[in-house]
Amino acid sequence: MFNHSGISISSWALLVLFLPAAGIALAAFQGPPRPFPPLELGDHEVVKTVAIEAAHKSYTLTFRGTVDGVMTRMPISYGAYHAGWQPNRFVRLENVGETDVVNPWLVVNGRRNWQTLESIVAEGIAGCQTDAEKAQALWELEKHSRFHACTWDGECSDAVKVYNVYGYTLCGNDAQVVSDLWKAAGLTTRRGYPIGHCVAEAFFDNAFHLLDGDEHVMCLKYDNRTIASCAEIVRDHELMKRTHTYSIGANEDNLRDQFSASLYWYEGERHGSHGGHTKHAMHYTLRPGEAIEWRWDHVGKQYTAGVPSPDGKHHKDGQSDLLEGWGKVAYAKMCNGRTHYQPALARKLYRAGVASERNIACTEDDQAQPALHPAQPGRPAEVVWRIHSPYVIVGGKVALRGKRAEANDMLKLSLSRDRKQWQPLWTADQTGFFDHELVFDEHLSPRAKPQYEYYLKVELQAARDRSAVGLESIVFDTDLQMALLSLPELEVGENTIQYRDESPGPRRVKITHAWVERTTWHPPAAPPAPIHPQDGATIEGTKVHFQWQPPSDPDGDKIVDYHIQVCEREDLRWPLSPNFNKLSSKTPSGGKPEWTVPYEGLLNPDTTYYWRVRAKDEKGVWGPWSERWSFRCRAPGVPLDLQVKLDEDTGRFTLTWKPNPRGRKPVRYRVYGSDEQGFTAASVEHKVQHGGGFCDTIEQFQAKQGRPPKGVVTAPPNLVAETAETRCVVAGPDVTLPNTNRAFYRVAAVDERGNASYASDYVALARPHIYTRPPTQAKVGHKYEYRAAAIRSIGHLTCFKGYNAAFWNCDKLEFS
Fold first, then answer.
1. Euclidean distance between the first and the last CA atom of the chain, given in angstroms as a whole number
2. Pair type for strands 453-461 and 381-388
3. What span, in angstroms and rounded, lies between the C-alpha atoms of 795 and 790?
4. How far apart are CA 64 and CA 46, in angstroms?
5. Which one of 324, 467, 527, 651 is separated from 81 by 20 to 30 angstroms, measured CA to CA?
6. Distance from C-alpha of 576 to C-alpha of 564, rounded to nearest angstrom
7. 8 Å CB contact between 228 and 221
8. Is residue 174 within a helix (H) or strand (E), and if so which, with residue range?
9. Model-level pTM greater than 0.70?
10. Using N-to-C axis directions, what is the helix angle for 131-143 and 171-184, rounded to 10°?
């Protein structure tokens, strides 16, 4: 039991009615409940109650513990994130007055103002000045407010439902949601066409740009600043291959990034847009005697449209529920809140809360007992209540105290989704005064039929005496599904809570916050200082090896992980790209106080970057961010304006380029050639995702043993040459350099200190082109033979008819 000095705990009597009765049948989609964790020695339970009588009121609550739920939560990622110890227990908002309270809402510390699509967008774009900022800000909000799972229907395509009710989407849902956010901010959107995946693009700076909220992907072009479009990624897979895919929760894995690039294949016309599915709002009315409770535990009740799996495991799309389909970590992100409604039946006030009634009287009308009874005996009487919630309803029960004097008196309950078709629930067979509790979970939100309201009808008929049958009291308890990240969460320190409602008249509201303060755990300190690069330093090269001083931990716990972010924005609002938002435990650094940028050239020379780090201890507690540190790099910029020209007389192709004015002046250039479109420039052997190899038909693919991600080969270097010139002959009958007479070329710049840029955008040679020359003399009586060779493309790794990655689009050479 919670207790706190000076705080009444009488309101806890309300909770008794919320507890499921033993032996009652469970909902169709019920998994194991997740109760609150047991208390530890020294934990302090707190209950605070606030009275509200104004449409807008701000108040503060001080959380005096040392650890909160945010500190023990892993960064939100593609898969379900891990949430550790949670001190919040519940927030209850009750109407204790005599007028309706319309659309009440709480916003804690200015976050999670998610009542409508417009309020979600307003929170996301606060402080943004340009369309580019708005697009990225809403993408950041989206990918940090959900994880990869779904209900297998359209429920998770509504932004307001995703943010408040579910907290998860699949890629198809996510593209709908982020498109609705962008459109509400005034942006134009366009659908993408990856195979086996679904994405959306936003239009700003006179172009479309891919921002994938599901897999947390955005690809920077070679200027390390401009976000690429889907079409640009289709043309050049290297934009995706050099990008960390599948979020901060995934290990650094270039082979996975290569496979992600293979989903982008469509070269046709791009039109159409996702979105238009957000119709919901978190609007509701609390009647006198009604309360809503946001809770951080759950009783295991959930909604799904997935068909039951034969063995309780997820085997294919459209199957299972959150637990079976997505696992225990995902299931733990679901919370079950509640509504509680106990109308005052003895007073005429109850009539303001009913949907309809006929032949009904209350004690205040005629002094007859029980409190609610037929107005006239011998005639049917009924009263209908509507229970509504902005959260999906996943369970319900009614507890009543009734009276039935004799066998000819009638009292029965029925349930309806729409007030048209009624399902009989129960008919009283007791006589005298009696208590009865009825759970009707199986009738609420069955598979593929989500409910946000239901109707309960009480039918009465008194054979002789109107006081012979009726209700003395009735209590409705309704279980709701709530998204963990949407709840009004208190954090360590001072919390500012803003209450608002849209009630036209007076209101009397009581808000109760309950939480646990733990003072035996302490977060690690912030990393105290950088080792490399030093704050404000200018360093050589762009493949930066970051190092920092490990912080101390007040409890002596071991530091097991670090979170590092590198930003171009001074306000650190978001990282530069997915490459620069990393957990060191997911990199070769293995949780040490260091991290190395995976590729040379992902940072620009002569640009100020900012970075920060935070640490996690072995209890799973994250400490605060370090101070903001800055650095600059010395290196050459990426070569520009690659062109290739054919000399008709010699049959030679000459590649030319221009040095980048940004960065240190190059002293030489590395030229790379390959027949793979969107190839990775490599001076050494490297691993290539080969998939099913070279295929013309799906039957050929299926006959091969190499399947993604197993089809990995070791590719030789594709370096052509190093040169001090800004030109290089790359194809022709007498060109003998390695990797010449290829279809595609890139160039990287190298400065006097050996620092290299990233390789440039590729340039393609004209095809078809036979680059060999036949002998011009033949000897009579001897065989004349000439082996012709032509420049051709092997295409790039793409998927076809599903996740069947192979080189499907190779040039086919025919000679005649």
1. 90
2. antiparallel
3. 15
4. 10
5. 527
6. 12
7. yes
8. helix 171-184
9. yes
10. 140
